[in-house]
Design brief:
Length: 408
Amino acid sequence: MSAVSVEEQLELLTRGVVDLHERADLAERLKSGKPLKIKTGFDPTRPDLHVGHTVLMQKMRQFQELGHHVVFLIGDFTAMVGDPTGQNDARPRLTREQVLASADTYKTQAFKILDPKLTEVRYNSEWLGKLSLDQVIELAAKRTVARTMERRDFRERFEQNKDIYLHEFLYPLLQGYDSVALESDVEIGGTDQLFNLMVGRDLMKHYGKQPQIVITTPILEGIDARIEDGKIVGKKMSKSADNYIGVTEAPIEMFRKCMQIDDSVIWRFYDLLSGRTNAEIETIRAESGPLEAKKLFAEELIARFHDASAASAARGEFEATYLRDGVPDDVPELELGTDGQGLSLSKALSEARLVKSTSEGRRMIEQGGVEVDGERVTDVKHLLQRGKRYLLRVGSKKRRFAYVRVQE
């Protein structure tokens, strides 16, 4: 068992979590010094993962490195039932062959984060496939329809007169029974899984087991997210929104995408995906500018999914291509005047003919498509100071540059 104190374990294990039922219980079990059994289930419904999917796995790795026992549960049985979470209609039923093919890919990608020697892989068909009809009825008798209808997905479909199939009612019970069968101390899931995880906690009481601790982690936003009024705004990371970092992507592509993350949002990526301690992250925040912070994060991510040499090579390639040699030789040079304390960036973009109008310049700034001296700027009120020279860049794929000197 780890020599790390209970307080230090709690600080790391609760970093970035949303729900924790119950913190006092977790602290008490950690004090016992006995390795805890950590369960996380994955229904392999799609073959490829992006880093948003790995937020859970990173939390599992933290438990693992502290000496706790991690169970990587593949829901080969529940995947054929179909999780109704977030669904407006019933999920298409999958065949066992489809599920197992995706499961192999899941394991390969998961072990880029988890230590395979310290990970127990289980399939829930081991126990769910053996339940008799009597046992299924007994399981169903431990949950009321009224409690099940508290689930938002079901309630909304009922109010909209959309079909709810009986097998969908069984899904939370089956996932909850996984916790009974494994006698888990802790179950980790995304915030969208809170209902299912709490069903597991409740079922364990009915079966005379010590109820599991429930931890949920956030759904990670995409690389196009931004901060508005102190809150992160943006769609969740997904391939359909084209705002993802795939775990099997080429190192330079991963590095490039990390550099597109907003300067303020990068710290959320650190909180949810970095293996660094809180103290190490605070040191980076205090001593590094946003550009360097993103480079360090990109290197860490690439080293995890590829290796350290690939991370170093990707950084070198990015700096050569995008920061040095990426600037054309024929960049126009302009001198612009201002009547105020400085020149607004949006107006400078317009006067340098990098955008068609000041309003388009503001929009490009808000969307994260503008850099000043290699640093992304998202503040539409940003001013260029008198007497200084700047390299402005607009766009990513079709980049446009201009050197601008603001008159004294």
